[in-house]
């Protein structure tokens, strides 16, 4: 929706989406509808499987069920809106709707970063201190860690969303993205965004760098412990336990770092769109497959 005056306050934004070609929209609608359906079925199935199968009532699978819940929520922030955009000509979103979408995006994204780090620590305790595993990773501690994850997510979400929307928006209202992401929204601000970009980079790094550090240190100790194992079968089992988590880590953190932890996150918008589709829509679908296909306990519970 075009603005009639250059200095009027923006009340609605226009999301350009992924494409403006009608034929391609129909194809993309079918693809993303299938992906979203698989995401919901796969993650809900994983949660139900972990809840109903007693062999999976361990800290590792409790954290995995929380990850599945986060993936459902994260995907639901973006995909329904994207599917609607393929079917309608009205691509606008209200100012408040944009704020809410960004807030939930940051909340669930931050939560997933922290949860993946907690899951790496869980594998560290399980492999490096197996006799103390159930003592250290108690149910009480797991619940506390999940609560802290959401609390930090809410805090980071409030800071980042407030940072973006505290700026004045009085001119262009076209967002070159399929959702209200921080970098393209900052491009529409009427004032200088240097400070806002520094805050974005700082808090993005504040979440990703410590969590990645925990993951790297945990897996460094895990690798040393595995190499010291005398039994090849024990080594194989340990590697198999970690393989699915390492795959999920690589997919998620790789795309997030490339989008947000860069000197000028406002640039390369087309490139960022592709990466954003990957970590917001595709990865939530892949996680249940990664954790089930590479995990004997899950496959046994399914059978």
TrEMBL record:
Residues 42-291 form the G-protein coupled receptors family 1 profile domain. It comes from the Eukaryota. Pfam families: 7tm_4 (PF13853). It is a multi-pass membrane protein. The chain crosses the membrane at residues 27-49, 61-79, 99-121, 141-159, 198-226, 238-262, 274-293. It is found in: Cell membrane. One of its GO terms (cellular component) is plasma membrane. GO terms for molecular function: G protein-coupled receptor activity; olfactory receptor activity. Signal peptide: none annotated. Belongs to the G-protein coupled receptor 1 family. This is Olfactory receptor.
């Amino acid at each position: 929706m075009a603005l009639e005056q250059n200095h009027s306050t923006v009340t609605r934004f226009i999301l350009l989406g992924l494409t403006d070609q009608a034929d391609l929209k129909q194809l993309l609608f079918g693809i993303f509808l299938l992906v979203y359906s698989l995401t919901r079925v796969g993650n809900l199935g994983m949660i139900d499987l972990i809840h109903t199968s007693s062999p999976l009532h361990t800290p590792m699978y409790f954290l995995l069920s929380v990850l599945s819940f986060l993936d459902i929520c994260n995907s639901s922030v973006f995909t329904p809106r994207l599917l609607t955009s393929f079917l309608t000509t009205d691509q606008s979103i209200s100012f408040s709707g944009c704020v809410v979408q960004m807030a939930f995006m940051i909340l669930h994204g931050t939560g997933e970063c922290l949860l993946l780090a907690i899951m790496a620590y869980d594998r560290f305790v399980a492999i490096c201190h197996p006799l103390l595993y159930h003592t250290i990773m108690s149910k009480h501690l797991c619940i506390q860690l999940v609560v802290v994850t959401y609390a930090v997510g809410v805090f980071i979400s409030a800071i980042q969303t407030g940072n973006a929307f505290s700026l004045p928006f009085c001119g262009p209202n076209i967002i070159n993205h399929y959702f209200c992401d921080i970098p393209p929204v900052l491009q529409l601000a009427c004032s200088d965004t240097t400070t806002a970009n520094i805050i974005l980079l700082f808090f993005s790094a504040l979440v990703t760098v410590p969590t990645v550090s925990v993951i790297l240190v945990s897996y460094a100790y895990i690798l040393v412990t595995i190499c010291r194992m005398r039994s090849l079968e024990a080594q194989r089992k340990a590697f198999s336990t970690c393989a699915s988590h390492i795959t999920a880590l690589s997919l998620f953190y790789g795309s997030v770092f490339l989008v947000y932890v860069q000197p000028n996150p406002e640039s390369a918008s087309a490139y960022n769109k592709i990466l954003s589709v990957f970590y917001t829509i595709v990865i939530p679908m892949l996680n249940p497959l990664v954790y089930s296909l590479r995990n004997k306990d899950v496959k046994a519970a399914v059978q």
